[in-house]
Specification:
Layout (H helix, E strand, L loop, with lengths): L5 E4 L6 E2 L1 H14 L7 H5 L6 H8 L5 H17 L6 E2 L3 H10 L3 E5 L4 H10 L8 E3 L12 H10 L6 E5 L2 H10 L2 E5 L6 H6 L4 E3 L8
Parallel strand pairs: 1-4, 1-6, 4-5, 6-7, 7-8
Antiparallel strand pairs: 2-3
Helix pairs in contact: 1-4, 3-4
Length: about 210
């Protein structure tokens, strides 16, 4: 990774362990609508494609109007309570600081809304070390479309050959492949690791502490 100038990170499951807070918000919505609640593991197994897809995948057999209401209630609760139990993964803060101190660039590319992502990063003390935050509502498309990565490269004026996307799921590896940037799979988090590995990421690490600058 020594030649890399731009390190792009996914948020949930990569920099941020947000599983419990997401599950709490989902179950708040489901309880309001008298829908059986889900375990944290059931919820995080569907994380990675944004809130709308999360709710749809958790209650696929419910009518659309119920799913829409569940999404509204989920967002209402989660936007007010994004950091109850959420915390940075071990090595996340140190790695981002190390990248910045080396004179290189950092970005967060997530399927969470941009403003919400900024609030979380700020509350956890690393927003000042992130050069750009790109959320689901920043561009016209979200991951696994390459559009958020293209936007990041353009904004930060870096070539795809000198950039890497680090994430915990198949969504991130596929996004990197679609955008023709290097990909790195981190083995903590929530994604389907077998599926992600089948996409042949250039790097596989157990922890963010293994990111080489």
């Amino acid at each position: 990774m020594k030649h890399i100038e731009l390190f792009m990170f996914d948020l949930d499951g990569t920099l941020l362990d947000s599983a419990e807070d997401i599950a709490i918000a989902v179950n708040y919505a489901f309880e309001k609508l008298k829908i059986p609640t889900k375990t944290t593991q059931e919820v995080v197994s569907k994380v990675g494609y944004g809130a709308k897809k999360l709710i749809e995948d958790l209650i696929p057999d419910y009518p659309q109007d119920i799913r829409d209401k569940a999404l509204e209630l989920f967002r209402e609760f989660y936007f007010e309570n994004p950091v109850i139990y959420s915390k940075l993964y071990e090595g996340a803060q140190e790695t981002v600081i190390k990248i910045k101190e080396s004179g290189k660039l950092t970005a967060v590319v997530t399927n969470k809304y941009e403003n919400l992502s900024r609030r979380i990063l700020d509350k956890l003390g690393i927003l000042n070390y992130i050069d750009l935050v790109v959320g689901a509502d920043t561009t016209s498309e979200k991951k696994p479309s390459p559009v958020p990565v293209f936007y990041t490269l353009e904004k930060l004026k870096v070539s795809n050959q000198n950039s890497i996307l680090i994430g915990d799921s198949e969504t991130d590896i596929l996004t990197a492949k679609n955008a023709q940037v290097k990909s790195c799979l981190v083995l903590h988090g929530y994604g389907n690791k077998q599926l992600a590995l089948s996409l042949n990421p250039e790097y596989v690490i157990n922890s963010l502490k293994e990111v080489e600058v």
